[in-house]
Specification:
- The longest helix is centred in the N-terminal third of the chain and has 25 residues.
- A five-stranded mixed sheet has the order 4-3-5-13-6, with helices on both faces. A four-stranded mixed sheet has the order 8-12-7-11.
- Helix content is 41%, strand content 23%.
- The protein has 311 residues and is α/β, with parallel strands linked by helices.
- The protein is built from ten helices and 13 strands.
Length: 311
């Protein structure tokens, strides 16, 4: 990667990529739009690649942009981690075991980077990871068989027995094929969506959240398929077989068959899907778990220029 790219450009790029527009990024960063625009143009010139597709709807990442976003997050995360480790006092001396729970859906998006950071921070701690459904993870947490879990944290079955700290908060948007009739609109309503077949993701209680939203709006859309496979949802949507309402943290613009999946904002207010840390209420967390929580917070802050969200 070029030595002429600055940390400031990485931060500006992440802000534009995550907010979807220069205007939103400038508000997030509290700097002039012209400074963000100039920085992005210089970054693309330096790389010799277009990182964004620009349209009246805002800034959309190109395939090269998606790859660069992953690199930018790693760079910012590494800088933040180096600063934290420099300030830490004896964290590398932690030993023992750490039992972490995770759902299959969340594991694919948060676990690998977090574990890599934690192992660099605490190489002497033995980490045991358990992948299970949300109800069973809650059972293991309450029973003391897990120290902490990473999961969708705003639809817990036993909230009175657990503490949840939000790491990221994702709004829901509509996924649809690029040539779908609704793609002509800048944003859509749930009533618009109800006229088309739905592909429903039944994972991590996301389906429950959406069913409650449909019910609140007194809508009963036809379901084409209920599936626990995110790739199945993405492929069916990309092929134009149906549409899906899903949180942003799961969005990727290409299917395995290289079909493009577009997104549109919803005018109706829907609950966000929050991914966070969960542990048993009243539990005296051991040092290895406390350090894991701090590393997860640091990763969350690195991913978002606005800083980590807290429940």
């Amino acid at each position: 990667m070029s030595s002429h790219i600055t940390l400031r450009q990485f931060r500006y790029f992440i802000a534009v990529a995550e907010s979807g527009s220069v205007a939103a990024a400038s508000r997030m960063l509290n700097i002039a739009q012209s400074a963000v625009t100039k920085s992005m143009q210089e970054l693309e010139d330096e790389l010799g690649q277009a990182l964004f597709e620009r349209s009246s709807r805002g800034m959309t990442l190109t395939p090269q942009g998606h790859r660069f976003l992953a690199s930018a997050r790693k760079v910012i995360g590494a800088v933040a981690e180096a600063s934290r480790l420099h300030q830490a006092d004896g964290s590398s001396a932690l030993r023992g075991t750490l039992a972490v729970g995770v759902t299959s859906l969340v594991a694919g998006y948060y676990l690998s980077e977090l574990l890599s950071r934690y192992r660099r921070s605490c190489p002497a701690v033995s980490v045991l990871v358990t992948e299970e459904t949300p109800p069973f993870l809650e059972h293991l947490l309450i029973n003391g068989e897990l120290d902490v879990a990473i999961m969708v944290s705003n639809v817990l079955g036993e909230p009175q027995a657990l503490v949840a700290e939000t790491l990221t908060r994702s709004p829901n948007r509509v996924w649809l094929a690029s040539d779908h009739p609704l793609s002509q609109q800048q944003d859509v309503t749930l009533a618009d969506c109800a006229a088309y077949d739905q592909v429903v993701l039944e994972a991590d209680r996301i389906g429950d959240l959406l069913r409650a939203a449909w019910a609140r709006h007194q809508l009963k859309p036809r379901t084409l398929l209920k599936t626990s496979s995110l790739e199945a949802v993405r492929s069916l949507v990309g092929a134009g077989a149906g549409i899906a309402v899903l949180p942003d943290f799961l969005y990727r613009p290409w299917t395995l068959d290289a079909e493009h999946v577009d997104v549109r904002a919803l005018r109706d207010e829907l609950p966000t899907v929050d991914v966070g840390l969960v542990w048993r209420r009243g539990l005296a967390l051991k040092p290895a778990a406390l350090e894991f929580i701090e590393v997860a917070r640091e990763q969350s802050r690195a991913r978002s220029p606005r800083g980590a969200l807290r429940a």
